[in-house]
Please model this.
Amino acid sequence: MRHADQVAYLERMLRMVRTNTRDDGPGLSHTPVEGYFDPVQYRREVDVLFRRHPIVVGHSEQVRKPGDFVTHDATGQPILIARGTDGVLRAFLNVCRHRSACVEPAACGSNKRAFVCAYHGWAYDLTGRLLGITDGTAFGDVDKSRYGLRRLKIAEKYGLIWVVPTALEDHEDATLDIDAYLGRLQPDLEGWTMAGWVRHSFEPIRRQMNWKLVIDTFLELYHFRYLHPESVFPLFLDNIATYEQMGQHIRIAAAKRTLTELEGSPQESWRITDHAIVLYAMFPNTVLTYTQDHCGIFTSFPIAPEESVLHFSVLVSPEEKAKKPDSYWEANRNLFAAALVEDLGIGETIQRNCHTGANRQQTFGKFEKALGWYHAEIDKAIA
Ligand code: FES
Ligand SMILES: [Fe+2]
Model:
């Protein structure tokens, strides 16, 4: 995040404290409750957002060396990501070209030289090329070059891996211009220098709630005082936050209680993560939270209209990790996790209550404007 932006956000939040105001929007916004359970809309979201948009499926540390691979099924497409001996990271459908078994059953691994299908032993190299057909005479003179693993568009940048989960045709380029997709978020992601960071923890959290309802819980600070009085609220000022729409994405900063220590100090020395948490809602389903020494990555995946899985990872810089004991990072993760339990617990009741007929739509107040933006972008994308 550019220093000028950091100062502007901190200044804005200090002004809110001084004047006891909030980052209000122009008015109310709404989203219909059907959007959280309607099967037709759900299918459309999967087909458009989870097949045509770049989706975060992991981070660089999982596949650092040639021969490293991971598999990922949460988008609904079986994905295989492997780093070749040439250092290039590639993504494929994890589907054998013979009779469609998965070619790699493991979640991850290293030192791989070839993927050998468990069903009849067809083998593929790290670039997806079909190496050999076992008892090949039975297939006559089939052109092996046309039976490579189906490729997917992939980008690896800023420590993250994005994939577009739709098979490419042979003539199509697998390069994904993620900077164009990030737009105004690009300088921020570059600035956090996350490329070399390591994973402290990962957990999938499965819940009976629509995947968008999970993202909703991240988009305002209004609820902190009421829902998180003992977990994260003690760290933050009450609803002192800035919200900004950046193309399809959203940037939020939330002030910690130490913010007012900045009054009177030279702005050149201000650093936003000393006194605030910076949160990005990266369209359509990922939230990144940056604090002084780590990043939380939250990616919400649909399982069914009313069921989802949240992939929650914590990444830390190796220098910071070396400086602090494991107990520090564990306490940090536990704090996040405690707030998540509170958010997702209430989210499941909201999911059920969407069927009661009490509300035809959710109402978003002036400082819940980011929810209005988010749902408007979803609606626009699937229209
Ligand atoms: S399905 Fe993979 S070798 Fe037959
Ligand atoms: Fe929350």
The CA atoms of residues 222 and 239 lie 5 Å apart.
